[in-house]
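The instructor's notes for this session suggest beginning with a concrete chain rather than abstract definitions. Hand out the sequence below and ask the class to guess, before any prediction is shown, which regions might be ordered.
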Amino acid sequence: MDVSTDRPSSPAVGSSLPTSVADAGALEQLAGAVPPVAAGRGVLDGAFAVLDAIARADEGLGLSALARASGLAKTSAHRLAEQLVTLGAVQCVEHRYYVGPRMLGIGQRWQPDPLLRRVAQAPVHALAVQSHAMASLRILRGHRLRYVCAAVPHGHACAPDPADPESIARTATGRVLYATQPADHVMLPNCWTRREWTSLRESVRDPRATVIDRQDAVAGMCCVSSPVWWPHGACAGAVTVTVHADDLPTSLPTVVAYTACRIGAALEQVKPK
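After discussion, reveal the predicted structure:
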């Protein structure tokens, strides 16, 4: 497990980098389209029970399984599911219900932490310019990596994020985010030994610390990541640069650590509105 604690220094920042914003529709009329489910239970409670149940089933759910998973009577589950199909929030294929395309658009508009995103966008953008590589700030939510913000230079492709905890924990970003979780809040993947996790937990507390992935997760791809800290001491996220190369430029860990410190310092100056 490669951890660096080189002292960050202020790097030069180059020209601007174009950004893009995902756009999608919103689910606006669900409450008006769905009648009450059962006495004492709200319409939206029932609708989201259906959506939550379907979202946990990659292979979809038949009606009986949907009723069991959502805790609804079969008639209520069927009525809600069909109305959600009409809205595009659910799709039905061969009598099995799946998450619908409208939810993708809504989900893409979710911001894990709007305050953190507002503070981090400029430093992450500058990091991408300085490194000539993809830069991002990500968090760990439900054992999945989620982007707070990212910037990619022209001609560079985004690599897909790993989808399971073991694969995530092999990346530099995943190691930072798992190692900075409270010990009693997360089950650490066993791709690293307990001793290695303990050592990493201790080392990432150094404000100069970076974690380096030299093709540990994906062949031909190297990453360097550094934690960003909230003023109260919790980890806000992991700043990462991803380089499509056999190794990293020697100066990159310093630049990444500096960016993480820059975002952390900015968080100390702002308060949620």
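Then share the key points. The first helix runs from residue 30 to 33. The CA atoms of residues 88 and 101 lie 6 Å apart.
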